[in-house]
Amino acid sequence: MVAPTGDSARRAGRPPYAAQRRQLLLRTLRDTGRIDVTDMADRLAVSTETIRKDLTELERQGLLHRVHGGAVAVEDLSFEPAVGARTEYTDEKRRIGRAALAEVPAEGSVLIDAGSTTSCLAEVMPADRDLAVFTNTLTIAMTLTTRPRLTVHTLGGRIRSRTFAEVDNWAVRALSEIRVDVAFLGTNGFTAEDGLRTPDESEATVKRLMLKAARRRVLLTDHSKLGRISLFKYGDLAEIDLLITDTGMPDADVRRLEDGGVKVIRA
Known about the structure:
The chain has helices at residues 6-11, 18-32, 37-44, 48-60, 74-78, 90-100, 116-123, 138-144, 169-176, 201-213, 251-259, and strands spanning 34-36, 65-67, 70-72, 107-112, 130-135, 150-154, 158-159, 166-167, 180-185, 189-191, 195-198, 214-220, 232-235, 242-245, 263-266. It is of the alpha/beta class.
């Protein structure tokens, strides 16, 4: 007799076998990029503890990575597209960059992190303000030098070819010596539970120091980064004063973030 599939087992009123559950979990991970424990427990008519045990076994086999509340694909943790290849959500990123202008002071100092969304802010930075601007990205620095009233500083250090970000000792030393009014930060992914994350350890170190170097911290990120997990944590959402995202972020997610103390603006 052929064992019923997960779908047919549910229609028959009985939960699927362990092997069937795990196949369905992997299929869901392949299709959606993540697994939510509570959602899968409801779908399969089993306890959340059963799903957690399945995920633990699949992680032991190297097939996924456990995160708070579920799991993500292993390759998602370290995958990092080059900045020039980040063409998704271009319009949203431009809107976020324009919205971030409201957080740029009339005078003083700002820090702009590496990233495709933070680059959109650099492209629209005003030319009529006397600001000291620090950045760890050569491409952003070159964009800003067209504004003669801005004093542009790069942090120095090794340049990562994928992101053009300056990292390692020189960048670390520079960040330890400055204190800016506002830092505009990017991220590869974030969740309320797992914080702000990036695939590269050296960038995580720099981003962590950026958080400490600023009086006010603004995170610029499109809605697709919510729920994404990368290898290295560099901060908690509680360290962010303002999150500027796009209108694609659902109301429920915005409420959850704001309940956690994060102010959210959707551009």
